[in-house]
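Tokens help. Consider this.
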Amino acid sequence: MTDPLPAVSQRRVILAGLIGNVMEWYDFAVYGYFATVIGRQFFPADDPSVSVISAFGAFAAGFLVRPLGGLLFGRIGDLVGRQRALTISVLAMAIPTVLIGLLPTYQTVGILAPVMIVLLRIVQGLSVGGEYTSSLVFLAEHAHPDRRAQTAVWGAWGATAGILLGSALGALISNILSEDQLVSWGWRLPFIAGAVVAGTGYLLRHGIHAQPISSSSKNPVRDTFGKHRVEVLKVAAINVSLGVGFYTAFVYAVTYIKEIDKLPESVALDLNTASMVLLLVLLPISAWLSDRFGRKPLMIIGNSLLTFGSIGFFHLMHSTNQATIFCGELGFVASIGIMTGGVVAANVELMPSAIRCTGLAFAYNASVGFFGGTTPLTAALLISTTGDPISPAWWVSAAGAVSLVTSIFFVHETRFKSLA
């Protein structure tokens, strides 16, 4: 196994590992938060719910191509190097983000508007496919064996910080602009501002010299679907609940509070921002517990909370009382924060070194892309077809059950496993 880098380099590695996730999830969060406005601008319809569903359909398109992006960037990471994959992915994410902020709307160019935004989401999805998992591998391989979860968790921390940044900026814009200004041009500002985050990420990653564990596979894509397919399936299964839970709590919840609870968007964003701050505090604590007591206990506890608590959390969120809604969101924060402490390290430790970037990228993105990325769309459709505002909870509970069963019966403890 690679020896940990010196303290100064270790800090640089952590910053380089987390910054791309800030960019990645900042953009996806901003899109989710302004889905209602984007729906009106690019997918106009007589029924507002149809516009929202269409906007989330474009959101889902970016996720559905993530497995392909995972194979592309994972192969680069395994054959060329982790740092090269990370540098390319942050640029491929940044350019479409800024372009979305500059796109003409349906009223200006007609059908070209929704076509262009879907294409940009697809390019972003390809980039995202290699970003998060490559950063987890990068961080875990350069961590002390006793602090692997505490180092790898900064990848998830960066993703959470990106969501928080998008939420905070969205809340700021919603509070200082009128509704007409927000719909007309204000929604564009967060996308254009993403260029600042991207530039910082490129500078941090460009020229960094890391010491990755070398791959022994000459064809990591073939081996991912061949002799290592069982490990790939296990990793995919333990990430189902994380994807569905995360996108329910921190992306769809904003639309839910606004469209179902009928509260102002600024209130929804304020509540979401507070939840994200608490998750940022919980993640390092959960990772410390994972390094001390193991990955499985954290995954079992977190998935149990999600499986058996989601219906109650949604009942709390379906309210006009802000304190009650916040209590429901806290339930999701606890579930996701606890399970993440175990999953971030287990993802890397369960994957053989020969295909670590490729296998983890495909497994994670196939799982989160299909189940997590379609969650806002699924939730909107469930409510639209059943008329039950609590119906999305059944989807979340089912996802929690899949990962819970996998964690208990099919995953062994990896806390002491060598990454060599």
Notes: The longest helix spans residues 112-141. The two ends are 4 Å apart (CA to CA).
